[in-house]
């Protein structure tokens, strides 16, 4: 395995978890020590992550975590709407009985999290549901693209999760995706996934309007 692979995975995970925040400088020497990698390995990892859009290189300043604007977050969600619709449709075609049972179980856990006010728990289940739909779809290329987009948009995803009333709005949207896949109805699954992402875009706009006030 090339030396930079664990460094790429480690930095990506730190960004996804919020440990590395937008505009934070990434010091090669610190990363080299943290991941027990050579400076050359760290530089190669940073180049790959720059190609993914997760970090940016600043002349004479090194690398930093790239900050995604609200306008770009909306664009990312518009792209996700198309690709996640595809994945939901494929999942409806390919889901096994065990897959459907698992998705139903996730839906019940999401319902319980909303009922108990467990926002962070609901957010984690939300991400797991989207990941399982991608996996069930068998669309490897789509999954890779969506994972990169999710990583770029992680800050805005967290803000969405914390937006008042958002779990109560998104729960029925997620349950509709599950129901369509369980019914093995690709068209309904695609419509449900697209409707959910339209709702995400609408909420992003609400968050932006609140920030502007």
UniProtKB/TrEMBL annotation:
Q: Name one Pfam family in it.
A: FCD
What region holds the HTH gntR-type domain?
1-68
The organism's superkingdom is given as Bacteria
Record has Transport as a keyword: no
Region forming the signal peptide: none
Q: What keywords is this UniProt entry annotated with? A: DNA-binding, Transcription, Transcription regulation
Output this protein's name: GntR family transcriptional regulator
Q: Which organism is it from?
A: Actinomadura fibrosa
Query: What are the leading ranks of the lineage?
Result: Bacteria, Bacillati, Actinomycetota, Actinomycetes, Streptosporangiales
